[in-house]
Amino acid sequence: MAAYIAYNYGDFIYRSYLTLNRDLSGLLLLLRVKFDLNRRLRENRGIHEIFLEIVNANLNKTAIIDVHSGRSLTFSEFNELANKFANYFKVSFKKVTVGYH
């Protein structure tokens, strides 16, 4: 049985062992982000307020990296871009009331 598992799944087990540290680090990061966001949302604050708090604490740090083009944005640049989109949609869409007739 052990020989069967080693022969058929040995490569998978070996690669899993090699990437275990990276995978556990990524899992830990995701859990920290999830618990931090839940804590902040329990404070009954909007997501935009949480975002602005993070932006103000990390103005010149990298926020996003586009893997395809290699372009990166700092939190300050990302906030400016997000505000441009928000203002575009604020102007472009009118309030629509949906009701039954």
Automatic annotation (TrEMBL):
One of its GO terms (biological process) is long-chain fatty acid import into cell. GO terms for cellular component: endoplasmic reticulum membrane; plasma membrane. Coiled coil: none annotated. Transmembrane segments: none annotated. One of its GO terms (molecular function) is long-chain fatty acid-CoA ligase activity. The keyword Disulfide bond does not apply. Keywords: ATP-binding, Ligase, Nucleotide-binding. Belongs to the ATP-dependent AMP-binding enzyme family. This is Homing endonuclease LAGLIDADG domain-containing protein. The lineage of its organism: Eukaryota, Metazoa, Ecdysozoa, Nematoda, Chromadorea.
